[in-house]
Amino acid sequence: MSSPTPIWLWGIGLALGFPLLTILLGEAIHRLKRRRRAIAGTVRLVRDVLVPMLALLVFLQHLLQVDPGTRLFRTVETVFWVCVIHAALSLLNVILFEQAEADTWRSRVPKLLIDLARLFLILLGTAFVLATVWNADLAGLVTALGVSSIVIGLALQDTLGSVMSGIALLFERPFTVGDWLEVGGVVGQVIDINWRAVRLLTLEQEMVVIPHKLISSEVIRNFTKPTPIHAERIQIGFSYNDPPNLARQVLKSTALETKGILLDPEPDVFTLAYADSAVTYEVKFFIRDYGEIEQIRERFMTRVWYAAKRNNLSIPFPIRTVYNFHGPTSQQKGLAKKFSESLQAIPSYVPINREDDSVTPSASGISLQHFAAGEKVIRQGQMGNALYIIVAGQALMTRRDGTGEDRELLSLRSGEFFGEMSLFSGEPSAVTIAASNDLEVMKISATVVNQMIDRQPSFAREIGQILESRRLAIQETTQAQTQAPFGSPEPGLM
């Protein structure tokens, strides 16, 4: 029979082995974390919990020589074996689930179910440890646990119902973190799914907690799946005097030019109903990110007003209008007054009669148009048939270079004009003119421009001088753009 190991050997082994093992496990954890291995968490559990408990157990048994039958020793041994069970289950979870390949049954198992299964196995293992270390009656313990489970289940039936509903939802996976949902009238983005509830972050930046039990009984609208593309519908009314085809064309072109609205699938406009005070149209457009729905709706609705003004479309509201057929209505008088004020704002060298009150936009071939910031008045490659004079606001002249990028050329302010070269040459515009902010322009038709030149030939000389100075300014700006030069502008820049 071999003699027992001396105490001093156990002491030296414990004094050297425990720090050395801790250092080795720490180095292993560092390497695993750099490689982003999931097993690093299990190794940390072994280093921080299992190894210290083992060292304590060896210290009590072989150095202090504590009787294994004492309460202190049994308590430490129980904790040690529970830690062994926990570490073993953690390693099994890493091997089976956390390192599972995509689109396999192991990757689709919900984390909530894995955590519940691990808890059950730890409790079961703890029962066996108690039966082995403490000589407890396992049958009596199971009976006590069964009775306790019934009592706890009755007390927490709502919570357990949410847990079971959560497991069913996680297995079905109708949504994941990051999806936009509508549940029970609440719209929000999923930011967390736990064992009891789902947390949504609404567009108002408020967190809403919805229990799984409530979600399982509600209709869920997922705006992100199966595709992130979402169709939005907006209803707008125009006057009965406005042709439906024109109204539909204006609404569709406005949707196509609004940032955030997809070109494919293409927006569509429907004549929906003949309401009490307007013909109702419905615009259906598609967006890719539901989180931007408020900004996209705002941009679209703002541009509808400007587009309606430019195309003489009326957006009515429920009022009673009395028409006087023996003279101009108050609306016509207001329009004539606004038109007269705008005539006074244009340069003095433009030969327009500013004193004749009978001149109105509809009768003179001159009209006032409004553009929102970012809207394009003239597009590069578009034929021009009018002269534009800025009454209020600012516009930006840009040109697309060979790389397809828009380059800024000039900033146009109140009193300046554009569109003349394309108008006189009959060639497509070589530049794009867009509103820098809210822009009001006076649009003068080609017929009226020709009449103005015939009546006052000096007007043509004024245009020629301004064109030459602008051409030189554009040429200097173009040459300064060394990153993507596109040469000197050809004659038809506008």
Provide structural commentary:
The chain has helices at 7-34, 40-63, 71-98, 111-133, 138-155, 157-172, 212-215, 244-256, 293-310, 330-345, 361-364, 420-425, 446-455, 458-480; strands at 180-183, 186-193, 197-202, 207-211, 220-222, 230-238, 268-274, 279-287, 366-371, 376-378, 386-392, 395-400, 406-412, 417-418, 432-435, 439-445. It is an alpha+beta fold and 494 residues long. It folds into 4 domains: 7-155, no CATH class; 175-222, SH3 type barrels (Roll); 230-310, Alpha-Beta Plaits (2-Layer Sandwich); 345-480, Jelly Rolls (Sandwich), CATH 2.60.120.10. The strands form 4 sheets. The chain has a 5-stranded antiparallel beta sheet with strand order 4-3-2-1-5. The chain has a 4-stranded antiparallel beta sheet with strand order 9-16-11-14. The termini are far apart.
Key features?
Alpha-Beta Plaits, disordered C terminus, alpha+beta, five-stranded antiparallel beta sheet, about 500 residues, SH3 type barrels
Low-confidence stretches: 327-331, 482-493
Strand content: 15-25%
Describe the strand arrangement of the main beta sheet, using strand numbers: 4-3-2-1-5
- Span from first to last CA? 109 Å
Describe the largest sheet: 5 strands, antiparallel
Number of separate domains: 4
- What's the count of strands? 16
Overall mean pLDDT score?
Answer: 80
Q: What structural class do the secondary elements suggest?
A: alpha+beta
